[in-house]
Amino acid sequence: MRIGIIGTGVAGSLLAEGLAGFDVTAFERVAPGDQAEAGTGLNIGPNALKALRLHMPARHAALREASLPWHRWFVDLTDGTRLFDLDMRDVAEEPGLRIRWSELYRLLRAPVAGCTRNGHALEALEEDAAGRMVPVFRTAEGLRREGGFDLLVGADGRYSRLRALAAGEPEGTLLGVCIWRLLVTDAADCPYDDYGQWFNGNARLLSFRVPGGAVYIAGTFPLPVEGQIPEAMKTAEAQRALFTPAEGAPCPAVAWMLDRIAAHLPDIHWARSATVPVLRHALGGRALFLGDAAQAMVPTLGQGATQAVECGVVAARVLRAGGDAAAVAAARDARVDFVRDFSLAASDTLLPPADVVAGTRKKMGPEFLGRLRRLYTEVD
Ligand SMILES: Cc1cc2nc3c(=O)[nH]c(=O)nc-3n(C[C@H](O)[C@H](O)[C@H](O)COP(=O)(O)OP(=O)(O)OC[C@H]3O[C@@H](n4cnc5c(N)ncnc54)[C@H](O)[C@@H]3O)c2cc1C
Question: The organism sits in which domain of life (predicted)?
Fold first, then answer.
């Protein structure tokens, strides 16, 4: 069986590595080494680490080596009042990790460089006389065809071209939340380390250190559901007002972040939080979708890249054993439904009229922690 993988991000790279020895070619639109110095940071959940530890131990070791452990998760108000404090080992078998985006891609792409064609952006889809899919790529030299494939895997992210070509452009659902992200590299004086969140009303800062003396900061605030992000919110003054408590001063951690936001405003990446309906396969099973291409979810529990890891690991296992796209769906979809529902439910405090103090304290209760334990450990 000839397999073509579109996109060597998280899911695509892991799938290509897991299918070593099979007839696999991966196609990636960016050049080799692209994103090496760019991008922000991210946290990957203990569930992805467990999947890698069980099935791809070399990749587990490489990621651990290049990252910081995610041991602790706390939630404060922006005045410093503590609402939630969790030792990750209470709900997981191992810590998660914190890493720079560029480093994650470098480590996942390196082992599959030999089977990857860079500078190939999927543009169109044709069929050969034998009924095999023929992807058409835009390259620097013009359009290129690489022959027919029995299975094409769309691991090309949230705006998957393969999914649009095979099943139509999916309709996204907006959560009604703006999310911005920033990587601060001059962060030696940052007054905190592990994963923290700070609320002022429903507006929230999230931040942690990543390797190389850098700090990742993400901010969210409510938006009218169909609304654009107002330009007036993209100023240092507006962000300072958003996260400054009504009474008193911001705590030192928040004061530090507000200064960094002001200093690095042009580097901030602004987006609206959205989901798309899950689609695992199309074209009679000849197109399979993994990661964000299949299941883009709200980022509240940091499960986007984490679930893409699970997807790559599980799909490789299923396809190696002779399974098809339907078998991957059987192995993945119930788990993905659970994670998407949980991520959405956990977003409650990001939206009015939720009471952040009551809602966050409730998350230290057995119901939320039980679901978190399921999320972080139910991987085989
Ligand atoms: C700034 C930012 C911060 C994030 N932070 C977090 C976080 O902290 N935690 C978390 O879990 N998730 C986070 N996410 C979400 C996370 O990025 C995604 O959920 C995750 O990368 C999905 O992995 P994937 O393998 O499905 O796709 P991606 O990692 O997006 O990879 C898709 C790949 O396909 C390639 N590609 C795209 N189109 C084509 C085409 N037409 N032809 C060929 N190749 C193509 C791309 O170049 C890329 O290499 C963040 C997202 C962003 C944008």
Answer: Bacteria
What atom in ligand 1 is closest to the CA of residue 312? 25
**For the domain that residue 19 is a member of, what is the CATH number?**
3.50.50.60
Tell me the backbone φ, ψ of residue 30, rounded to 5 degrees: -85, 160
Other beta carbons less than 10 A from residue 1's beta carbon: 11
Residue-number span of the structural domain to which 147 is assigned: 2-29+119-171+276-346
Q: What does pLDDT average to over the chain?
A: 96
Return the ligand 1 atom nearest residue 271 CA.
53
> Would the CB of 161 count as within 6 Å of ligand 1?
yes
Residue 367: inside a domain, yes or no? yes
Q: What is the distance between the alpha carbons of residues 60 and 73, in angstroms, rounded to a whole number?
A: 22
| Cα 333 from chain centroid (whole Å) | 17
Confidence of residue 36 (pLDDT cuts 50, 70, 90): low
Q: Is the CB of 151 under 6 A from ligand 1?
A: no
Contacts of 317 (CB under 8 A, 6+ apart): 18, 55, 331
Percent helix, strand and coil across the chain, each to the nearest 5: 40, 30, 35
Looking at residues 335-360, what average pLDDT do you find? 96
pLDDT tens per residue, range 63-85: 999 999 999 999 999 999 999 99
What value does the mean pLDDT take over residues 103-121? Answer: 97
Q: Give the span between the Cα atoms of 127 and 145, in whole angstroms.
A: 11
**Beta carbons of 176 and 224 less than 8 angstroms apart:** yes
